[in-house]
Amino acid sequence: MELISDRYPLIIVVGSGGVGKTTLAAAMAVLSAREGRDTLVMTFDPSLRLKQALGVGEEAKLQEVPVAFDAPGTLHASLLDARQTFDRLIERYAPDEASRRRVLENHFYQHMSGTLGGVLEYMAVERLFEVAGSGRYKQVILDTPPTRQALDFLEAPSRILGFLDSGALRVALRDWFDEEGRLKSTSRWGALGRRAERFLDDVVGMDLLRDMAEFFQAFAPLFEGFRERARQVEALLRSPQTLFVLVSGAGEERIPDTLFFARRLEEAGYHLGPVVVNRVHPRFVIEGAPPPSADLCRPTGWELLSWAGERDRKGLIELAKLFSREQPLVDVPLLADEPIDLPSLEALGRTLEERLAAWQRYVSRSS
Q: What is the pLDDT of residue 164?
């Protein structure tokens, strides 16, 4: 299969943390621009070196910024910021200026919009939907959030829909406080009600409860817009033109996570593309290698490299046995140095492309 092509205008790079998703996403974007496509790479919290390689700063949180790159296609980069994306959604769906300000100035919203569980993941797909519908780019590549549970990203739209349709939300929308800011349910209890309020204030904080109630009431006119948008985002993720690239680390210990993630993608109806085993150690088999160290607790550097190479080779073999022949599975070797500029990112993209072509040739010969 052709990874970077007009067939898949949207590529979403997924996988657990620490496997090199961000660097591979940037490498594919550089390669896409080199091949003549106007390309956008969207990423979360890239390393300082990758920011320097792309030449982007904090302004990339506000808008897509051009990357200085002499190529037939243009290259832009965007740093995903959950808070700013959420703010734009509020501005889009608020029925009037008063409603918009009521939400944006709410203390609870200001604290939760960039940190609440699921918001970061949902804002990633929301921003993806926004740029995909703009028509500005022939290729969009999204690096998914660095979450412990990587599936949070895929489940974010359905969780948003579930929340908007939940009984808990209907309860939150009730008019809990009177004009004096006291709980209506306790004001008629006299001294007992005041003690109940003091208890809630000590345990939770009445100011927080009031801010939460105010937020949900202010947010109510926007729910339908959010609900429809979440449905559209789900449809985008399941589109046959959206390709998921699953990145895994090397070694047999990574196999269960890789299989679990691949299975969940396919069960949910997403289009799984290549499974990329990244940073594979080379396997050294050289005549005249130094003899094993006598101290097993203190192996030599040569022994560590040999062990790592053999471990990664076994992991690839076992992983290949567990996937069908039709599932692209490629390995990308560990580099001596992380890519720190556009030429090295392009070289990494070429390596990935060459490995995928080699997999295709192997499958064709053996079929």
A: 63
- Measured CA to CA, the distance from residue 346 to residue 341 in angstroms comes to 9
CATH fold label, 10-154+239-366 = Rossmann fold (3.40.50)
Amino acid at 234: E
Pairing, β 75-79 against β 271-280: unpaired
Q: What distance in Å separates the CA atoms of residue 163 and residue 305, rounded to the nearest whole number?
A: 50
Helix (H/G/I), strand (E/B), else coil: 191? helix
CA distance 310 to 51: 34
Question: How crowded is the C-beta side of 130, counted as CA atoms within 13 Å?
Answer: 16
CB atoms within 10 A of CB 200: 15
Residue 133's identity, in one-letter code, is G
Among 329, 305, 249, residue whose Cα is nearest residue 18: 249
The pLDDT value given to residue 181: 47
Provide Rg for the chain, Cα atoms.
25
Q: Write the single-letter amino acid at 364.
A: S
Which segments of the chain have a pLDDT < 70?
1, 45, 111-121, 146-151, 153, 160-161, 163-222, 285-299, 367
Give which of 280, 246, 285 is closest to 263, Cα–Cα: 246
